[in-house]
Amino acid sequence: MYSYLGRKKRNHRAIKDRLRELGRFLETVKKISPDINCLENLMHPSKYNIIIKAIKETSGFDEKSGVYETPSLALKLGQSLKKCILVYKSMCLDDPILLNNLPLIKLLQE
Questions:
Q1: How does pLDDT run along the chain (110 residues), one tens digit per residue?
Q2: Of 12, 15, 53, 67, which one's alpha carbon is 20 to 30 angstroms from that of 74?
Q3: Which residues of 7-39 are buried (b: 16+ CB within 10 A; e: fewer)?
Q4: What is the value of pTM for the model shown?
């Protein structure tokens, strides 16, 4: 994100906000599943339900009414996670051990 937006000083706040949102998301994930300590541990299709539950909890989803308290946060988290998946995908291409995870990442990316 920094390589794309970071050259201009005015974009630093947007980068900071996105990182803070991802940090709040990761805190929620840790409450749901304490064995996950970084975003890389979420890059597996078996963790999909944890991701959805954490996004709903972070953005204030109300099960009864079906309404988000902050729907824009849910969208931003989804977009940020897609970017994280792309970064992880490039890491997999560089590391032969992680290369085995590549077919599983395609499931998450969709």
A1: 545 544 566 777 888 888 899 999 999 999 999 999 888 888 877 888 999 999 999 999 999 999 999 999 999 998 898 888 888 777 777 776 666 665 555 555 55
A2: 12
A3: eeeeeeeeeeebeebbebbbebbeeeeeebeeb
A4: 0.78
Instruction: Name the CA radius of gyration of the chain, rounded.
Output: 15
* Rounded distance between C-alpha atoms, residue 13 and residue 20, angstroms: 10
How many other β-carbons are positioned within 10 Å of the β-carbon of residue 78? 13
**Lookup: tokens for 83:** 């970017």
Shortest CA distance to 51 belongs to which of 29, 23, 31? Answer: 29
Cα separation values, 5 from 9, 16, 35, 51, 73, Å = 9, 11, 33, 26, 20
